[in-house]
Structure formats: structure tokens, C-alpha cells
Amino acid sequence: MRLSSLTRRTALALVGGALTTGAGRAPQAGPEDWGALAADVRAEFRWAWQAYVEKAWGRDEINPVSGTAQSFFIDGHDLGLSLIEALDTLWLMELDAEFQAGVDWVRTELDFDIDGDIQVFEANIRLVGGLLSAHLACGDPVLLDKARDLADRLLKAFDASPHGLPYRYVNLRTGAVRDPETNLAEIGTYIAEFGVLSRLTGDSKYHAAARRAMLHALKLRSPIGLMAANIHAETGQFTSRNASIDVYADSFYEYLWDAWELFGDAELRDAARECLAAMIAHQGKRYDGLLWFPMVDFETGAVTNTSQTVLGAYLAGLLGQAGFRAEGDDFLKTYETMQDRYGIVPESTEVTTGRPRTLRTGLRPEVADACLNLWLGDRDDVYRAIAATHYRNMKSSSKAAYGYTGLTDLSTRPMTQGDNCPGYWWSEQMKYYWLMFAEPKRIDLGQLVLSTEANVLRGFVPA
């Protein structure tokens, strides 16, 4: 089934009601000065970094309203999450002194020999990926050594399963594992980082472990081509019937495509296209003219849940990358509509009404992610314009005393701020904006491959 595409340049009539008042994009006078907008992004990133250095240096996450900090992975054992996530963004923005200070911290302070449980998926995409991208940027071997040390500890979670499906948590020191009830995202979001690590070290075990887990899940596809989102590391079987494009599943599908981009894996490329075609055929639904992909039964295609999270916006870009351009544009239009309607895309939306299911947001980057991937396909400024609105709305609603924070209520004017900057903010949307708005000297956009956490795994221009 081919879903008809909305005209991207058609004006959107804003919906009435308290949530829509004053929430649309600010009008721009004349053509956008992309260079000036890029300079503003860089200045904001540098300002936020300076606040992190002053208030939370080496801590996992800064709380930008109170100027405090918090751990993310293991209470009482900070691993410099935000610092590591920021490294390749600092490099791309040519903030070299700031970048080197971060690398020096990794060299002298970062130690993974901790008697504590870490979430394997998050540790891989954030820490292994962040260290690898920083190494690819500057060539410092200490960054590769740290990435390899962590990956070796994470591999214990794969080895403990008879099917090679990683448990959700592993103890960094002892290798003890827990939580076998897992999901597609947490068993299938490794091949990009682990594959690059295998290439850099010459040890194939990382790439092999990641690929084995993906292939196991792919073999469980139903006759209509869908997979359930939840799976058990010990039994190797699905534990739910819900097929999801976002929560519990999203990055699995991204990494099928990344395996092709990074390693020329034609089998996983074909699987990506087959999975996306099945989503279009059996999950794509229209409500009030907007395309959504709600959860459905993976064997029958019957809708099982009518919520959609902002995380799902990534799919618009992935559809474009994999050859489903019209559907990607169509789905991005849905999120553009939500952005114009509410200013900030709600964390979760009831697709039958287009109304928020929750009023909080977590500084989510997925709309900007989709815009970048679609823009890289044809350089159409319509995608940059949507991302510019995304940036300006974030700046007007989420800037606090010591950086950028998530929101607890997007219905108030001004929107009510929370007090936490998630680590991914440093790696994701500010990088997406910079790559789209600037003419970055340190990246070849034609070779660019980003991880699900926006770590650069290919495309750096040699210094």
C-alpha cells in the first residue's frame, strides 16, 4: 500500500484551544540567514557547556534550573555522561579547548571498574558510541581503549543468554546479569558501535555478537512481516504481541539500515526495507488526515494502542533514507503539525484526536533528527525551516539559568520548566541543528553516518 503524500508547502490551519494559543512558529522576515542561525546554535552550546563545567564537571547530568547535578547510570558513580556525549559536538563546532578538556578528563578520571549494574543499551549508545566518535575525530588512542574496556564488560550480557540476546543490565565489575525481559531496541542497538569497534581493533567478536542478536529477532517476524516489541533473553521468544515503531523498538530498525551504510551488509539492508514496507502496509493509519503508526498486533495488524510518542519522529527520516520518501515526508508532516499546534511536540499523543496524552517533555531531538536525514537526501530548505522552528521553540521554552531543561507542562504560558538536561541533548539536537544550518568544515555530509545517539561513526574530514 502506498500512502498518499501531503503537499509539504501547504499552509497549516492551527487548531483552537488553550494549548494552541501563541504556540506556532514565529514569523520570519525575509529569507533565513542560515550562517547566523548556526552561529547562534554554537554560541548557545558553548554557553551551556560553560555552565556544565562550572556546576557539574564530570557528573552525568546537570540540573540547569538549580545548578545541581545527578547520576544517570549508577547512583554515586558518575561516568561523565554529558561530557562524553558532548565530545564530538564540541569537535564539529571547532571548540577545541573545550574538547581537549573533555578528553583529558576521560584520560585521568574515567574508570569502568565499578561494582554496580549498568543498563547495557544506554551504556552502548551513549558511552561506547561517544568515546568512539571522539576517537574517530581526533585519533587519541585512550578514547578507543576506554570504549573497548566498556564494550568487553557489556559483552557479558550477551554471553549469558543462550540466544545471544543481551540482558538489560550487567554488573561492570563482576559480569553478573539481570532483567532478561527485554525488547527489540535493547537487544538490537549495537551493530553500529560494535561494528566500528571491531573494525578499529581487528577483533570481530563485537560485530558478531551484535549481528547475531539482530538476526535472531528477524527470524521471528510474523507472516505479515512485523515483530513484537518485547522479547525474552532466556527463551528467545516474544513476550508481547505489540508491534511498535517507537517505544521498545525504534533504534532496532535504524541499526538495520546503519549496518548497510557502515559495513555494506546487504542482508540487513533488505531486512530494513522489508520491515519498513510491513510498517507502511499494516501500521500506517490516518486520523483527521494525519499519518500515524500506532501499535498493532504483530500477526494480525489490528490496532492495539492509539498513542504515539515523539520518539517515533525518527521514522520519517529513516523512511526517506531507505527509499520510502513520500511516506517519510508524510509522517514528518504529522510532527510538523504537532509542533505548529503546540510549540513543542508532546511526549505522547492520542492519535485519534491529536491531543497530548502527557504535558511533560524531555528535550526530545527526534524531529530534528528526521529533518536532518530528509534534508541530506535533497538539501530542500523546507526541512531546515522545520528544524529552525524546533530550535527556536526549544530556546524560548527550555533555556534556564545554567543550560537547557525539559518541561513539566507545555500547556502553560510560559511553559513550565523542569530541572534536568538529559545527556542526549549534548549529542543530538544541537548537532543536528549545526550540521543543517552551518557549513561544517570537519565533516563530509555525503559520507556522514550517525548512530541513534547522533555520534558520528563516519564522515569526519581528516585534520
Summarize the structure in words.
The protein has a domain at 18-53 and 180-458: Alpha/alpha barrel (Glycosyltransferase), CATH 1.50.10. Mean pLDDT is 94; it is low at 1-18. Helix content is 47%, strand content 12%. The longest helix is centred in the first third of the chain and has 23 residues, at 34-56. The chain starts with 33 loop residues before the first helix and ends in a 5-residue tail after the last strand. The protein contains 16 helices and 21 strands. The chain has 463 residues and is an alpha+beta fold.
| Computed CA radius of gyration, to the nearest angstrom | 21 Å
Helix percent reads 40-55%
Strand share of the residues?
Answer: 5-15%
Distance between the termini: 47 Å
**CATH topology label of the domain at 18-53 and 180-458:** Glycosyltransferase
The main β sheet shows up as: 3 strands, antiparallel
Question: How many β strands by DSSP?
Answer: 21
CATH architecture of the domain at 18-53 and 180-458: Alpha/alpha barrel
Mean pLDDT: 94
Biggest sheet strand line-up: 3-4-5
CATH classification, class level of the domain at 18-53 and 180-458: Mainly Alpha
Structural class: alpha+beta
- Helices, by number, come to 16
Low-confidence stretches: 1-18
> Rough shape?
globular
